[in-house]
Amino acid sequence: MPRTPPPDPGQAAKEAIESERPARASQALLVSIAPALPVEVFCSVMLGIPLSTFEEIIANGDGPRMFLIGRRRYITKQDGLDWIEELRESRPYVRSIRQRKAAASTPNATE
């Protein structure tokens, strides 16, 4: 009786990725044509963060303007992009803790 080879774990991963591709493609299409996005799509496609992280941001009083349609929260693409731009300008990326402390202690030349 011939032995069956053990299942390939890589094949299972490939199949899982292939099953997600249509969902990602449809979300990307939605982002390109829709004037507003559900919060879940905004988090996953535009920000690449989990919804729970976005919920923490909102709980801290930050976040883009949202509106409701029924029970779903939506963000217009322009409001989302404006909020991202505000974050970029107000919290620039600083590589190390030492550089962060130095940046916080020196006043900006433009002020």
UniProtKB/TrEMBL annotation:
<protein>
    <submittedName>
        <fullName>Uncharacterized protein</fullName>
    </submittedName>
</protein>
